[in-house]
Amino acid sequence: MSESQKTPLPSPPQIGEGADLGARRSGSSPTLGEAGRGLWSHRILGMLLLAGLLYSVYTFTNAGRFHIIDEVSLYGVTESVARRGTVDTNAIAWTQWVNSPGEVLGAFGPDGDVFSKKGPGPAFAALRAYGVTWAGRALGLKWGLLQGVLLWNGFLTALTAVLLWLTVLRLGYRDRTGMIMGLLFGLGTIAWPYANHLFGEPLSAFSLLLCFYGIVSFHHKEHKEHKEIRKSPFVWVAGLGAGLAIATVTAYAVLVGILGLLLAYYAVQAVWTTSPPSPLIRLQHTTFCLLPFAFCLLICFSLLGWYNAARFGDFLSTGYHFDSGEGFTTPILQGLWGLLGSPYRGVFWHTPLFLASLFALIPFTRRHRAEGITIIALSAALIGLYSAWWMWWGGFAWGPRFLVPLGPFWVLPLAAVLERDWEIERLRDFGRQTISQSPNLPISLGILAFLSGLIQLAAVTVNYVNYEIQLRDIFPTDWADPLKFGPPAQGIGDFAASPVIGQFRLMAQDFLANTDLAWLRADGTILWGVVLTGVVVVGFLIGLIVRWFGNENRATPIPNPQSPIPLILALAAPLIFVGVWLNGASTDPIYGAADVGYRAILSEIERDAGADDAIVTIAPFHYQIPMNWYDGKLPIFGYATDSMDHAEAVNVLSRAVDEHEGIWFVTAGLPPADPANSVERWLADHAYKATDGWYDDFRLVRYGTAAGDRIGYFDLDHVLTDDANRVEITGFDVPYTIQARQVLAVDLHFRLTEPATHDLRWFVQMLGPDGIPVAMLDTGPLDGYTTFSTLPAGEELTEKAGLALSADLPPGDYRLIAGLYNPGVEGSPRLRSERWGEDAITLRVFTISKTPSK
After folding, report:
1. Is 819 among the domain residues?
2. Contact 79, 633 (CB under 8 A)
3. What is the pTM of this model?
4. Distance in angstroms (rounded) separating the CA atoms of residues 222 and 170
5. Does 405 map to a domain?
6. What gap in Å lies between CA 717 and CA 76, rounded to an integer?
7. Are 839 and 777 within one domain?
């Protein structure tokens, strides 16, 4: 039997029934309602201040950019769901072909689409941040979509700190202790650096703690009869947390199983104290009590099965590459040392505060035996699980990334140190609590907390990825297979090479070059508006928290619990700072300048693209620009120059050309008709180039497709010739009808009656009712990938051409003409028809009846 069972601890006062802090301090005798309002006003203010301070600090220290490719994969899912209601990550399909299969962040679906192998929970949870940022942009605010989502985990981690406070209260500790626990977790553990990443671990920490909180609340909530047990909302809370955890990482089912055992233990305990003595009835009541938890898990696994089927056509397929080496293949002692003691990833090096947690766990478990044993079991399960994982170190990461979910559970036992000598007495008249405690925080705990906070501050100040790269130069690395030699800095003798020390080395080497703060640029630029606002907001919130602590022991509450002003300020200050930060961070050069280069291309696509178009990119080092600034809903297919060597890319682009009316093709730093650009070469064979333009170092090519009904004409017997070249036009294909804003796709079928002696070029034009061209194309064969002088004679050939029709074409008759000219001769004369003597062939006359709206 636990200590809490021997001497039942009262649950935290509920609104309308709880303790009155003001009455306890002043000795007055307020009514029960006044007591509840006073306590909860004070408590809610404290929780808002805690969340606001942490969120402001996280925002202030956020880099505003990705660190690791894992983040890109998660954001790709969020973006796809928000824009188009799909779950693919085709926008970063190029990541599928990297050094090692184990480094691949996605997997191919049956049709070649790319899907993230990460659990869907974090990506779907981040939709809230995406929606808020999108709404801000709709109001004219210059907020980057990606940068707004990068603040999400900071918000979630702040909520986790508040949830930790609530858990502390459920175990019978004071609000003061809850505030301290929240601050220690939020600023003294690796939760801080990961609050600034788009990883799934912050959601894991929140969801597992939510499950634990629901179970503890169920246990400490007084149940007078079995009906109350069966209707307890806290079982639903626990089930929600369990489902979220599994939706984040399926392997967390092991941890949920441990938490489920704790819930079952408490359910049996509660039923036995409230139900009739019949074993059958008790079994029924226990089963009914656990049904909400089981129902939540059933829903979770059903949704995961649907998600897997939607991606890979198999309810059980997750996308992990177990056949390529992923799995639980590491000798467990090796991983155990790595996660706990190694200089590279040892948890106690990266968060010394957890050393105090080890000692605090003893008195904590004595007082809360079941909860303490559960924390030990959760820790053993998670550490054991990832000690055996093939990449237990988590790739390029800060500290033991996979142990982040244990953070709140390892901070929780410290409550037993902060309230070492305690006794709780429930005064039934007013629901009042009195707690006597040791007034001094142990000096050792303070030192460890300070040291831990300093380490986390170093982690967010300069970019730890830069030191990870340096480590690969210090220790053996094969960059063709970076996983070949495993993680560096494993031996205790390598402590000087630990990333903990490495952060300070980066500062000494070149602080500006290694900075990881959005408001401090590598060129020395400081965003003073962000800095000053952040300092004022953080300082203001710290001041309110200091007053809040003082209010714990004052006779008169400060501020007045009836006044809404402190609550409003606690809410408004962080939100104002977030808006200022987003506005400043949006100017980061990594995301391009407005109306220049890639961003100018995106603006043109948003303005001119049709709803059934698609975007194809060959810009693997600039993927963050459309992620941050593109507001449209067109699907994006992001490839590398050699992607068409892979059947999956061919399948996806073949489908894109069949299903979409237009293709907007973006390249970065590549010349037209680059022989290495397999994607453009493929498009030359399968799509119809209409326009080709440069935007600084970026290039935008617009293609049409053969979507829709088409009409073909053959046996034209038109021969175009000059003194040295003779080309027979044998037929053409065009759509039945045209309309403004589309790309008119034209197939020209031709044959060289004899080898060409010059490199001729095609011209295709649409002449308006007045005979003036309204659209035209000038191109070499196969969009410049070959020349006329190298084409075989006597073979049937096809040239694909596209004409981009303006959105404002007036109604009338439009004449489509085509022909050839010789740029190798002075004046670039056109070839003429042997039969008619004309220098162009009229292919078809189209009628536009009206200008369609976009």
Report:
1. yes
2. no
3. 0.90
4. 12
5. no
6. 52
7. yes
